[in-house]
Design brief:
The chain is of the alpha+beta class and 661 residues long. The protein contains 12 helices and 20 strands. It starts with 10 loop residues before the first strand and ends in an 11-residue tail after the last strand. The relative contact order is 0.05.
Length: 661
C-alpha cells in the first residue's frame, strides 16, 4: 500500500553493476514467539529484446512516451562515477569527473565535445547526462536554404498568377542575357533532380545488397548459436515455448535482430518479439510463399520483403537442423532495423541535398546575373554602336581583350566599320563631285542661253559698222538694250544659285501668316486665276520665323501652282490656314496637271523642274526655308486633277516683342 518509491519503506530500489534496476521487498509474515519471520521478494524487469527493429506499431501512443530520437539526443547513466548505460552518438567517458557544480535541484548545464549537456544528480550515487549537438554554421545554412527555396517558390507563384512584368516569360526569353540566366539556373535545377534520383537509386540498391549480405551473416550466426543450444533435440514442441523464447530473446539482443521459429508444419513455436503475434498484427502461420520455397521446394534460404501495417521490412527464412542434420523447424529473421536506417539515410541525404542546392541556387543566380551581363555586354555595345552608325560621321572602334567568339565578333565589327567609313568617305566625295558636276552643267547651260543672243547681236552690229549703215546709231542703241537685258539675266542666274548655296541668316521674329498670304495673292491677281483664302484658325496664326523668307515660300508656292495649271483650264487656287496641336497648318491646292509618279521623289531635289523654263531651285529653296523655321513640308497629288502642298509650322518657345507688319 502507499507509494513504494517513498512512503512504503519495505520496498527498496536496487542497483546492479550492469545498470539493471530491480526492487527488493521485505514483508514481515509472522511476529511473536522466539523468532520473527520475513518474506523477501526481488522484482526484476521483464526480459525483452533490445533490438532496434522493435516496430513502433507496438507502442501505445496514449500511454507510452516516444523514445528519444538518438539522431538529436544522447544520454548516459553513471553509478558511483562509473558509466553503466548510454545511448546515442555522443562519445561519453567511462568515468565521470567531479568538476561539475550542481544547483540546489541537482542540475548542471555545460558545453564540451561540441555538444550541450544537462547533468542531473538524482542522488549521491546516480548521475544522468542528456546531450544534444551544438548548432554549427551548417544548421544556419540549412535554415537559410529552406527559407530561400520557399520564398523563391512563393515569389514565382505570386508573380505568375498576378502577371507581373518580370515574370512575362515570353518577353523575358527575347533578351539574350535573360536566356543565359534561365539556361544556367534550369541546368542546375535539372542536375539537382537527376543527381537526387540517381543517388537515391544507388543508396537503395547498396542498402539492399548490404542488408542481404548482413542478414545472411546474422542468419548463420544465429543458426550456430541455436544449434549449440538445441542441436541435441529430436523435436521442438509448443511445450518448450518458454525455453525457446528465452534463447530467442537472448540471441536477439546479441545479434541485434528479431528471431521467429516455426514448426515444420508452418506454425509459430516461439519468437523474440511475441507482442507482434499476441496483438494480432501478423498471423502465427508462416508466410505461404516462404513455406512453399523452404518446405516444398527444399530451398536452403528464402528472402523477401514483407509488411506489417505500414511498416516494410526484409525477412529471411532458413531451415533449422539438429546435430543429425534433421530439420526441426524453420527460422525466420524479420529485419526491421535496416528499414529505419534506410529512411534515416535517405532523409539525411535529402536534407543535405536541399541545403547544398539551396545555397547553390542562390550562388548560381548571382553568378548567372553577372556572367550573363558580362557575356551580353559586348553584344549590347555592338548593337548600340550599329544603331548609332550614320553616314558621314566618325565611327568608334570597340576594344576586347579576350581572343574568343566575342573577340572575333568585335574584330569583324571593327573591320566592317573601317570599311564603311572608307566607303562613306568615297560616297561623300563622289556625291560632292557629282553635285559639282551637275551644278556646273546647270550653270553652264543657264549661262549659255543668254550668251548666244549676245554673241549674235555683237556680230550683227560689227557687220553694220563695216557696211557704214545709216541707222547705225539706232542699231547700236537696240543692241545695247539687248545686251543689258541678257546681262541682267546672267546676274539673276548668279543670284539664284548664290541664294540657294548659302541662304542668308534668318532674322527670326513673330510673323502673322494671314497678311503675308494676302500680299502674295495680290501679286498674282492679274494672272487670270481664281484665288480663295480660308482662315480656319479661329485665333492666333503667328509663328517665329524670318518674314522675308516665309514671304518667298508663299510666292514660290503660288507661282508654281499657277504654272501647273494648263492654259485651256480655268485656274483655281485654294489656300487654307488652320491650327492643330503642333502649330499652324497651311494648305495650297491647285487644279493643275498634278505630278507624275516617276517625278514625285524629285520635287524637292535641287536643279529639278517640271517646267520648260527655270532652274528647279524654287521648291528646294522652299523646303530649306520651312525646315529652318522648324517646320516640315509635303504634298499630295493626283494626275490631271491637281496638287496640294502642306506646310506645318510648329510653335516655339520665345518670340519677338511685337508682330511684324
Amino acid at each position: 500500500s502507499g507509494n513504494p518509491f517513498g512512503v512504503n519503506k519495505t520496498l527498496n530500489f536496487l542497483y546492479s553493476g550492469e545498470g539493471i534496476s530491480s526492487y527488493l521487498a521485505k514483508i514481515k509474515v509472522k511476529a511473536g514467539g522466539e523468532f520473527d519471520y520475513y518474506l523477501f521478494i526481488e522484482l526484476f524487469p521483464k526480459l525483452f529484446s533490445k533490438a532496434k527493429g522493435y516496430p513502433e506499431l507496438l507502442l501505445d501512443k496514449k500511454n507510452v512516451i516516444s523514445q528519444i530520437n538518438t539522431n538529436q539526443y544522447s544520454y548516459a547513466k553513471y553509478r558511483n562515477g562509473k558509466l553503466v548505460d548510454n545511448l546515442g552518438k555522443f562519445n561519453y567517458s567511462v568515468e565521470l569527473g567531479n568538476q561539475y557544480k550542481f544547483d540546489g535541484d541537482g542540475f548542471c548545464t555545460t558545453t564540451f565535445g561540441k555538444a550541450y549537456h544537462v547533468i542531473y544528480q538524482s542522488d549521491k550515487f546516480t548521475t544522468i547526462i542528456l546531450s544534444s549537438p551544438q548548432k554549427t554554421m551548417f544548421n544556419y545554412i540549412t535554415t537559410f536554404s529552406y527559407f530561400f527555396i520557399i520564398s523563391s517558390l512563393l515569389i514565382l507563384l505570386v508573380g505568375y498568377f498576378l502577371k507581373i512584368s518580370p515574370f512575362n516569360w515570353q518577353l523575358a526569353m527575347t533578351d539574350f542575357s535573360t536566356k543565359i540566366q534561365i539556361f544556367i539556373i534550369v541546368s542546375i535545377f535539372l542536375s539537382f533532380i537527376l543527381f537526387g534520383w540517381a543517388t537515391t537509386y544507388y543508396i537503395k540498391k547498396q542498402n539492399a545488397e548490404k542488408n542481404n549480405a548482413l542478414l545472411a551473416e546474422k542468419v548463420q550466426s544465429v543458426l550456430i548459436e541455436l544449434e549449440d543450444k538445441l542441436g541435441d533435440r529430436n523435436k521442438l514442441e509448443p511445450k518448450m515455448y518458454d525455453e525457446l523464447t528465452y534463447y530467442l530473446i537472448k540471441f536477439s539482443n546479441v545479434f541485434y535482430t528479431d528471431i521467429n521459429l516455426y514448426s515444420k508444419e508452418g506454425r509459430l513455436l516461439a519468437s523474440s518479439r511475441p507482442e507482434v503475434f499476441d496483438r494480432g498484427m501478423t498471423g502465427t502461420q508462416m508466410d505461404a510463399e516462404a513455406f512453399n520455397a523452404i518446405h516444398s521446394l527444399k530451398k536452403t534460404h528464402f528472402t523477401q520483403n514483407e509488411r506489417i501495417g505500414s511498416l516494410n521490412y526484409l525477412s529471411t527464412y532458413v531451415p533449422f537442423r539438429n546435430d543429425r542434420n534433421e530439420i526441426l523447424a524453420y527460422m525466420n529473421l524479420p529485419y526491421f532495423a535496416k528499414q529505419d536506417e534506410l529512411d534515416n539515410e535517405l532523409s539525411s541525404f535529402y536534407t543535405a541535398l536541399v541545403n547544398v542546392y539551396g545555397l547553390l541556387f542562390l550562388i548560381t543566380a548571382i553568378i548567372a546575373v553577372f556572367f550573363a551581363n558580362y557575356i551580353s555586354e559586348p553584344v549590347r555595345l555592338i548593337k548600340d554602336k550599329i544603331s548609332a552608325l550614320q553616314l558621314g560621321k566618325s565611327y568608334d572602334l570597340l576594344e576586347w581583350q579576350s581572343n574568343d567568339e566575342i573577340g572575333a565578333l568585335v574584330i569583324e565589327y571593327n573591320k566592317k566599320v573601317m570599311e564603311l567609313e572608307k566607303s562613306a568617305q568615297l560616297l561623300v566625295q563622289s556625291e560632292r563631285e557629282s553635285a559639282w558636276r551637275e551644278m556646273a552643267k546647270q550653270v553652264a547651260h543657264e549661262i549659255k542661253n543668254p550668251l548666244t543672243p549676245m554673241k549674235l547681236s555683237i556680230q550683227q552690229l560689227q557687220r553694220l559698222a563695216n557696211d557704214n549703215t545709216e541707222d547705225l546709231a539706232e542699231r547700236i542703241d537696240r543692241t545695247s538694250k539687248t545686251l543689258i537685258e541678257q546681262i541682267d539675266t546672267l546676274t539673276k542666274i548668279a543670284n539664284e544659285f548664290s541664294n540657294f548655296a548659302k541662304m542668308p541668316k534668318a532674322n527670326e521674329q513673330v510673323v502673322d501668316l494671314i497678311p503675308l498670304l494676302e500680299t502674295a495673292i495680290d501679286l498674282y491677281k492679274e494672272e487670270g486665276v481664281a484665288f480663295q483664302l480660308r482662315d480656319n484658325s479661329r485665333g492666333d496664326t503667328t509663328i517665329v520665323a524670318d518674314k522675308d523668307q516665309v514671304s518667298r515660300v508663299f510666292t514660290n508656292l503660288i507661282k508654281n501652282a499657277i504654272q501647273a495649271i494648263p492654259e485651256d483650264r480655268d485656274g483655281k487656287i485654294e489656300i487654307t490656314v488652320g491650327v492643330n496641336d503642333s502649330g499652324v497648318l497651311l494648305q495650297v491646292q491647285d487644279n493643275g496637271m498634278g505630278i507624275p509618279d516617276d517625278k514625285k521623289d524629285k520635287i524637292f531635289v535641287p536643279n529639278f523642274t517640271t517646267k520648260s523654263t527655270g532652274m528647279g531651285l524654287g521648291l528646294a529653296m522652299v523646303k530649306n526655308i520651312v525646315e529652318q523655321a522648324n517646320g516640315k513640308i509635303w504634298f499630295e497629288t493626283k494626275e490631271q486633277e491637281g496638287t496640294t502642298f502642306f506646310i506645318q509650322f510648329e510653335r516655339r518657345a520665345g518670340s519677338a516683342p511685337e508682330i511684324s507688319d
